[in-house]
Design brief:
By secondary structure, the protein is mainly α. Helices cover 51% and strands 7% of the residues. It folds into two domains: 2-235, Hypothetical protein af1432; 270-383, no CATH class. A hairpin with a 4-residue loop joins strand 1 and strand 2.
């Protein structure tokens, strides 16, 4: 009865039997698996091959910097699903989500010139270090899912990932953690334990890369610049985590973090990652958009309907609290009196939510929406006598 009421079971996807001759596992429990068992499926081997194919490290450093922490993460994830419902709600779903997100991230990182805004010579020198930052940040972001589990071993002891790898049969249930700062703090403890020491010593040679990684791991993911953007985009479209109540950034976030992020935004080259700067504060901006007399601008209405649709969607999303400013991993940030929209993620979200509304306009590319939004924004700003310029 206890198993049925409190502990997670999935009759539709029972765990696969292990290949050795270990003692039978009690009903409702999972047996700890080795890393060879956990990574031995064809699909997971395919994800690992992608990681190697996109790596710029020699084999020995690839093993030390990537595979070793990856295997430790997989051992912590065992047969856990990501959530009770969704794409990865089956035994082993967390490992599949982990490897798929990681494969997506390394592919995406190759479309960026890293670090943003640096000279080509510096990018050539630092490229491997920034790629490692992307890999590590992605790895440890998926560890967020462990914070939503209550795990009990066969001997009755409660297990925590901080204590190390499971070595006894275990069962678990979902206890969603609704405070993002606690989730990120939990992942940070694991990350700083699993990060390869030699890799960190190597990364010290490039302070900006080290700073971006440390900010991401400390929970200031929106302020980690291109690192946070790639990790977020890599995980988009997958049901990775239980719902988390929207929350502002931790109060302890230093003012310098916002300055650092603003500096990054000014340096990041399009189209890889840049942010639209909307002058004035967010409420004023939205009031101006809502109150603008578009009847005097027939060309605007006729030629840029997707831009209008985006503005209406953004205003409603903010009014209905679906979009929260300065939220961890959010899309809207208020910094020093200016409002920034993170692109392309804000437009990806718009496209996903407004697909049917966009169908009559024959628009299926977020870049088209962005261009129309920029034209609308510039026209309205000119009508009000103000100036609004995208920040490259």
């Amino acid at each position: 009865m206890l198993n049925t009421l409190f502990f997670w079971r999935d009759k539709a996807h029972p765990p696969e039997p292990l290949s050795d001759n270990r003692s039978p596992v009690p009903a409702g429990y999972f047996a700890p698996a080795s890393v060879e068992e956990l990574l031995g499926t064809p699909l997971r081997q395919q994800y690992l091959q992608t990681l190697w194919d996109y790596s710029s490290l020699p084999r020995n450093l690839y093993q030390q910097y990537y595979l070793t922490p990856l295997e430790q993460c997989v051992l912590l994830m065992q047969q856990f699903p990501v959530a009770e419902q969704g794409a990865y709600a089956y035994p082993g779903g967390m490992v599949d989500c982990f490897l798929k997100t990681l494969a997506n991230a390394v592919k995406l990182s190759k479309s960026y010139m890293l670090p943003p805004g640096a000279d080509p010579e510096d990018q050539a020198t630092q490229g491997a270090a920034w790629s490692a930052v992307i890999v590590w940040a992605t790895m440890f972001s998926v560890l967020d899912n462990l914070a939503h589990l209550h795990v009990e071993q066969e001997n009755g002891q409660v297990w925590s990932p901080v204590a190390g790898v499971l070595d006894k049969p275990y069962r678990f249930r979902f206890v969603p953690e609704t405070q993002p700062e606690k989730v990120y703090g939990h992942s940070a403890m694991l990350a700083f334990r699993l990060l390869p020491e030699e890799g960190l010593r190597w990364l010290i040679r490039w302070p900006d890369a080290l700073k971006a990684l440390s900010m991401f791991l400390a929970g200031y993911r929106a302020q980690s610049g291109v690192v946070g953007a790639i990790v977020l985009q890599a995980g988009e479209g997958s049901d990775k985590t239980p719902p988390v109540t929207p929350s502002a950034l931790p109060e302890a976030c230093p003012d310098s973090a916002f300055d650092d992020y603003a500096t990054f935004l000014q340096q990041a080259p399009p189209p890889c990652e840049y942010v639209e700067n909307i002058p004035d504060d967010l409420p004023s901006f939205m009031e101006n958009v809502e109150g603008a007399d578009l009847s005097s601008e027939p060309a605007l209405c006729r030629f840029h309907p997707a831009g209008e649709l985006f503005i209406d969607w953004l205003r409603q999303s903010i009014q209905q609290k679906k979009t929260i400013a300065n939220e961890p991993d959010g899309h809207v940030y208020v910094i020093a009196g200016a409002v920034f929209l993170k692109t392309p993620s804000i437009f990806h979200r718009f496209m996903a939510e407004q697909r049917e509304a966009l169908r009559p306009l024959k628009i299926d590319n977020w870049r088209d929406v962005q261009r129309q939004f920029e034209k609308n924004k510039s026209a309205q700003a000119a009508a009000r006598g103000s100036k609004c310029i995208p920040v490259p």
